[in-house]
């Protein structure tokens, strides 16, 4: 029997087409192997893995004496692509006179997660308790994941706290649950309490911090991970590269690139995409292009990231050339690609080309413009001075303009000294962003530029009356000890005295240099 099992396992590993599946099924029937639920389960699992779920399910339905293992195999396979059917099969377990085991519940809960049906999840939770498996660690972990996925993190925490013996997977599930709904502080507190951590633990917290726009904290956590000698995986490295891109932390980004090469890690498409994004946002466009050109396989995200990176640095024509190559490679653009294209057109003032792509998005590519694409087009028109057309496009939009769109029009009115448009834009921004000081300042500057000093003063007075405070500017710089952040007017930095001392010396040297230049000019 073991020889036959080995043969079947070998055949299933080599299987890659429906013809192969059909031949293996015939092989099993001729030898009576289809009567063994374990072997049939392996065959059905292969069917689902290769995308022949209908065939696998039909084989299961034809089996009159299925056991729980066979039911679990089918529920697992269906949970990935037909969650409602997976729940139906789960419910048939009891109808067949069987009892769900510690694998049935997690597979069924996985289907619930896809359906986002928390009430159904509660029913399965009750059933697990009635069966005596409610505190099985595999079931508990699945329940935490299910409640967290359905944004019922309070229920997830209740389940978590009621378990006395938790493994690392259980802790990871709860940390990931907090991360999913943006409760990063709770995720960090729980992470610090973990008696044991693995690479998934670190990846969850680093990825969560990066996603929640806490790049400095993500990088600090990555450094902690290194100090504890935990080797990062692809997901952790991608998350840190995203944080590096946000902060322009080029030195750390290059170190990660070298780490990937040194350890012979596979440069998967997502990881390469993260490298392109990091280099582009850190100002190293040539390095971004090197990574891009070295990739044998490129996804739509790869092309889009490269186009966005070039557009970011005002290289609009180069960005459009990448898009033309993308079309020649027959990679279908997505809605984010068009944001990048319109942004590229905006940076180099290619209004006609921008209009062309905006107008063919739906007819040629089947992508209906959303508020983001409208915003890019309005920004393009505003920058180029087509203010009336930009306003008309706002009126034609099938949805309300957001703060980004009115902000674009306010900026355009400042560039082209159109106080009337500035007043309209600010009126809407006061409702959408009442405490954003920059909006008031722009209109005040427009009035000042056109000699309307009284109106300029009124805007400043309006800011004072409403209690709108000017937001302090900030900057960051990468050093050997991490990312150093500075806020204008803030003296709380531990090295602020030393920094002031260096700045004073720099000012003195600049003054001396200016005086020397004046003397040389006088001599000439």
UniProtKB/TrEMBL annotation:
This protein's name: Pentatricopeptide repeat-containing protein
Top-level lineage group: Eukaryota
Record-level Gene Ontology MF annotations: RNA binding
Biological process according to GO: RNA modification
InterPro entries, A to Z: E_motif, PPR_At4g14850-like_plant, PPR_rpt, TPR-like_helical_dom_sf
Keyword annotations from UniProtKB, A to Z: Repeat
Organism: Rubroshorea leprosula
Pfam families assigned to the protein according to its UniProt record, in alphabetical order: E_motif (PF20431), PPR (PF01535), PPR_2 (PF13041)
Keyword flag Repeat: yes
Chain positions of PPR repeats: 167-201, 268-298, 299-333
PANTHER family listed in its UniProt record: (WILD MALAYSIAN BANANA) HYPOTHETICAL PROTEIN, PENTATRICOPEPTIDE REPEAT-CONTAINING PROTEIN
